[in-house]
Amino acid sequence: LSATTYGWLILVFPLAGILVVSFGWRLLPGRLPGWIASGAIFGSFLASLGALAELDERAHVDSAFTYAATADFEAELSILVDPLSVFMCLVVSGVSFLIHVYSVAYMWSDRGYARYFAYLNYFVFSMLLLVLAANFVLLIVGWAFVGAASYLLISFWYRRGTATYAGIKAFVMNVIGDAGLVVAAFLLLNETGSLDYAGVFAGAEESLGRNDGTLVAACLLILVGAFAKSAQLPLHTWLPDAMEGPTPVSALIHAATMVTAGVYLIARTFPLFELAPAAADVSAIIGALTLLFAATVALAVTDLKRIIAYSTISQIGYMVLGVSVAAYGAGLFHLMTHAFFKALLFMGAGSVIGAMAGRQDIDGMGGFRRAMPFTFVTFTVGALALAGFPLMSGFFSKDEILAFTLNRGGGYVVLGVVGYLAAFLTAFYAFRMVFRAFFGEPVPEARELEQGHLAHHDPANPMTGEPEDTDVGFPGPEHHVAEREWPMKAAMGILAALAVVGGVVGIPAMTDTLEHFLEPTFEESRFHETVPSEGAEWAGLAVGGLVAIAGIGLAWFAYLRTPGWTGRLRERFAPVHDFLVHKWYFDELYDALFVRPWAAAGQFGRSVIETELVQGVITGGATGLVRAGSSVARAIQTGYLRAYALLLLAGVGGLGLYFLIASS
Amino acid sequence: VDIAWFVVLSGFIFCIGAGGVLTRRNPLVVLLCLELMLNAGNLALIAFARMHGGHDGQVFALIVMVIAACEVVVGLGIIVAMYRRRLPIDVDEMSELRG
Fold first, then answer.
1. Cα separation of A195 and A182, whole Å?
2. Which residue of B has its CA nearest to A644?
3. What are the distances in angstroms from CA A111 to CA A20, A22, A27, A454, A522?
4. Distance from CA of A603 to the nearest CA of B (A)
């Protein structure tokens, strides 16, 4: 089988999974839908491995059929199999498979079990379509599909008002990005006459100069798409709210795969960004700002999943920074390790939330260390990798990005320093979660679990506290913890192992496997030879390790050594804390800037334009006119036969008289 | 005989018919008066046909007779139906088509 055949197979498996699960859900007993969906994704993973084995130096393109053909260009339904897309397929299908397996147990008591897996397969299919697309047409299709899948899964518990609201919010934000991407594709088509990646890159190289205005505009529009999908400033507000979805969804879509699509897009269109360094610089600056912003917010919010969500925004900021400073290998390396440890952290959070019977606030958590030893160990591993603790996977990937950034010199040094500052905060908030959830005095739920049974509360919305039932459209009645469910345990165990050893593919000057693997895609880059020296990389690693240990140490001091310290800090700096808890007031700002004016305009339109103008003047005027006209016509229709006869006679007589007079 | 006599007679009969249609309220009489009007028309057609020495007017007169027969069939049918339903036999009472 050729590489492209494997490429098609990667897409076929999840598509088959969608069809089987969504049409056969009545016939599939028990956990079978979950296992079928997992099997489909595993098939994709095997096909990705097959593509990996068949890969050679060149990029393989294969078209299923011509989607549109005109005089000047053709849009093909074609896929591109090259090291970058195969790498993305491996990460997406591999992590997705583990999250499917986790979900088999985690979602078990939910009434929407089969629907959940149909959506999940649909998401994976869309994501694989996105990364395999060989032109902008198919990319946009996949891009919009993942947005739709994200909407469906955020609003999965559709009777929960906050969840549907969050789904709408995510969808609207994503559509802003879709629009940007579509306009960018139009601009590129207009300039280069092609929509294929290869054609666009060659055409741009040929006909557009460095920092050409149109090209910069197109790149900035691509960035709008990338930032909306990857939750970068200022389009990030949907991602924390997306935590309303089931926890494995947060792990899959809103941490490991979909939100990294923007990073993939920037890496994929790197020739454009190298021709338009102004756009790349904008992207790097926004990435750096985002990573710092999100890290500060993660210090203050208390919802366990939202802490991890802000951490995700922050880590994607690192990736965006990496691919924007031409450290493509490093950015994608961090994408991979982040997928491992962030999915792991969400799975651990899901297990803890299960033990808390659905509650998510870390203020109510504590002391789960003994009750949930497995979750504790794996979660800590994830937190260590996130913090960049020496020799963990995140350690190598994050520091490689920062080493490349510093190596560019000039203003980039500032961005690198911001990155190290945020790394310190990252280590602190990562261990804030660990220390708050697993250490300290065991809460009643932890005590109950130690005695062998799971805590139960009346079902309620974790955000608003509103009471709920456990029927369809709400979370199921039972909760599941990793300690009791082997599929959850298996998925978390494998991811924990990967989070520890995932870094071996990118140890500077020793393995660098990933960078060599991706070389065929990126060797055209003009920064291909611009790599930091070995000494600089090791120095960076040393600094990064020290920063991580310092952050963890501060968290230990703040939460274990002197437990009341953070409370006193919060009181002393209340305005700062308020500012962070309100997420820098972004939601309030957007509310004031967009939501309220729009709602007011809608209200105005309804009360004035619709009722007064349309209903009153236009509709009322037209009916009044017709009524007045018809009343005249009605008056003639008396119903008296003799009146009609008289009219008839008078008419004929009149006509006769007229002709008589006219002819004489 | 001069053609004017025929035409005057025809006009006279036509006016009697039209006056009947306009003034009488009994549908049977209205039908009779209609018949008068049609036949006045026939008389004029035949008189003119004779004056011109052609056949066209006579053919028209035959067609008018056929139409008159049809009209009588429909009209009498309606009147019989009105009797059966015991409706008032008065054209002024039948004003349901009022707008």
1. 11
2. B22
3. 18, 14, 15, 20, 47
4. 43
In this complex, do B92 and A634 lie within 8 Å of one another by their Cβ atoms? Answer: no
* Token pair belonging to A264: 């993939």
Residue of B nearest to A646 (CA): B22
Q: Kindly state the percentage of chain B with pLDDT values over 90.
A: 55
Contact list in B for residue A641 (CB cut-off 8 A) is 30, 91-92, 94-95
DSSP symbols for B28-72: HHHHHHHHHHHHHHHHHHHHHHHHHT-SHHHHHHHHHHHHHHHHH
Mean pLDDT of chain A: 85
Contacts of A519 (CB under 8 A, 6+ apart): A83
CA distance A313 to A146: 18
* pLDDT tens, position by position, A174-201: 898 999 999 998 888 888 888 888 888 8
The shortest CB-CB distance from A637 to any of B18, B92, B98 is to: B98
ipTM for the predicted complex: 0.84
Is B66 touching A (CB cutoff 8 A)?
no
Residue with tokens 């602190």: A428
Q: What is the pLDDT of residues A287-312, one digit of tens each?
A: 888 888 888 888 888 888 888 888 88
Whole-number Å distance between alpha carbons of A541 and A534 = 11
Chain A residues 597-636 with CB within 8 Å of chain B: 633-636
Q: Judge whether A646 is closer than 8 Å to chain B, CB to CB.
A: yes
User: Residue A557 to residues A365, A635, B51: CA-CA distances in angstroms?
Assistant: 19, 95, 132
Q: Is the peptide bond before A234 cis (omega within 30 degrees of 0)?
A: yes
Supply angle C-alpha A516, A518, A521, rounded to 5: 125
- Which residues of chain A make contact with B97, given a CB cutoff of 8 A? 637, 639
Tens-place pLDDT, residues A81-109: 888 888 888 899 999 999 999 888 888 88
- Best residue in A641, A644, A652, A660 for a mutation probing chain B (most B CBs within 10 Å): A641
Residue B26 contacts A where some CB pair is shorter than 8 Å: no
Q: Which residue has the tokens 């049409």?
A: A23
pTM score: 0.78
User: Which value, to the nearest 10 degrees, does the dihedral of the CA atoms of residues A211, A524, A508, A230 take?
Assistant: 50
Cβ distance A640 to B18 less than 8 Å, yes or no, reads no
Residue of A nearest to B14 (CA): A649
Residue A642 has pLDDT above 90, yes or no: no
In angstroms, the CA A153 to CA A428 distance is 31
Give me the residues paired with residue A460 across strands: A467
Q: How far is A178 from chain B (nearest CA, A)?
A: 59
Alpha-carbon gap: A643 to the closest alpha carbon of chain B (Å) = 8
C-alpha angle A358-A91-A276 in degrees, rounded to nearest 5: 110
**Partner-chain contact B96 A636, CB within 8 Å:** no
pLDDT attached to residue B95: 77
Distance, C-alpha A447 to centroid of its chain: 36
